[in-house]
Specification:
The protein contains 10 helices and 10 strands. The strands form 2 sheets. Strands 6-7-8-3-9-10 form a 6-stranded mixed β-sheet. A 4-stranded antiparallel β-sheet has the order 2-1-4-5, covered by helices on one side. It has a single domain, classed as P-loop containing nucleotide triphosphate hydrolases (Rossmann fold, 3-Layer(aba) Sandwich).
Length: about 260
């Protein structure tokens, strides 16, 4: 679990986050949503430790992240996996080498041990046998799965995903969501996902944090979205007339069955 306690982050006179207190739970996908400029990316970077808060605390379980020595912080970061928006794969490296990279950087494993772990991670994301291909030789969806395999290679306790469905078609997006959700629940990972994808919200949103203007304005799960009275949530989730009609039809059908 990760929790924040009254997190404030300011850049000069601009308060980007204004006292965020919340929890992100182990074993379920935790989604951060909100319009552009709401503070999602800044919050994600604070959770990872790339930014320091102006005030407030971030706890990994019961450990205050920003009170740690460099050595203890390194130990925590060894337990963190990161899936970047643009995948951040090295074009000059093969798929296998890309996945192996964190082990090369942070472990003393033998080459045989590393290659065995690479194979395990490729099997985990249903991409067995592509070790020797280069990122340019696989599709965008497959590149995303390589990114997930690399994020999982050190068996993280915490996984952060920045817009994991960016640039993907709807069908592939759903497959990526299902893969992240399965890995999260199966390995009891605290997974935090920064997303604009409403299919993700309604599909895997077991814990949803909605930000607006640097404030936490709503928190709940996907089953509570339809019934929520929060106008901010409804304006964001059901921004288009088409989605509003879908919501109204779903509510009518649900009430008719009760």
């Amino acid at each position: 679990m990760i929790r924040t306690e009254n997190i404030v982050k300011s850049f000069g006179d601009n308060d980007v986050l204004k006292g965020i207190t919340t929890e992100f739970y182990a074993g379920k996908p935790n989604l951060i949503i909100g319009s552009s400029g709401a503070g999602k990316t800044v919050l994600l970077k604070l959770l990872i430790g790339l930014f320091q808060p102006t005030s407030g605390k971030v706890y990994y379980d019961d450990i205050d992240l920003f009170s740690l020595s460099d050595e203890r912080l390194r130990e925590i970061r060894m337990k963190v996996g990161m899936l970047f928006q643009g995948n951040a794969l090295f074009d000059s490296m093969t798929v296998g080498e890309n996945i192996r990279f964190p082990m090369d950087m942070f472990t003393k494993m033998t080459l045989k041990e590393k290659e065995k772990r690479v194979d395990e991670c490729l099997e985990m994301v249903n991409m067995e046998g592509v070790n020797d291909r280069y990122p340019s030789e696989v599709s965008g969806g497959m590149q995303k799965r390589v990114g997930i395999a690399r994020a999982m290679v050190l068996e993280p306790k915490y996984l952060f995903c920045d817009e994991p469905n960016s640039g993907l078609d709807p069908k592939t997006s759903i497959l990526i969501d299902e893969l992240i959700c399965d890995l999260t629940t199966r390995n009891n990972i605290t997974t935090v996902i920064n997303t604009h994808d409403m299919n993700s919200v309604m599909g895997i949103g077991d814990n949803i944090v909605l930000l607006k203007d640097g404030n936490l304005v709503w928190q709940g799960d996907k089953t509570q979205v339809l019934e929520s009275k929060s106008s901010v949530l409804q304006d964001f989730i059901f921004a288009s007339p088409f989605l509003r009609r879908l919501r109204e039809d779903a509510l009518k059908q649900r009430h008719a069955q009760e």
